[in-house]
Amino acid sequence: MATTAPDQANSNTTNSNNSTGTMDSIKNALGNNQMVNKATQFAKDRPWATATLAGVVGVALLNTLRGR
Which residues of the chain fall short of a pLDDT of 70? Predict the structure, then answer.
């Protein structure tokens, strides 16, 4: 039992490092994309419009998943 706990701790550390590495690679891949830069700039310039758009898309998604 005592040898299992350090193994689990090491696997958790490895998983968190892998997810961080994956996010970094996604950011690097999308960082040079012109559409992503435009969307980011839009979100920075118009936070209320971005929140409204996210809300509308979220409600539409919930209605779709509702199964009506």
Answer: 1-18, 68
Number of domains in the chain: 1
The answer to whether residue 12 sits within a structural domain is no
Report the predicted TM-score, pTM, of the whole model to 2 decimal places.
Answer: 0.50
Percent of the chain with pLDDT over 90: 34
CA 28/CA 32 separation, integer angstroms: 7
Report the C-alpha gap between 49 and 42 in whole angstroms: 9
Q: Which domain holds residue 63?
A: 20-67
Q: 8 — phi, psi (to 5°)?
A: -65, -40
Nearest CA among 66, 65, 64, 43 for reference residue 54: 43
Are 49 and 41 in contact by the 8 Å Cβ rule? The answer is: no
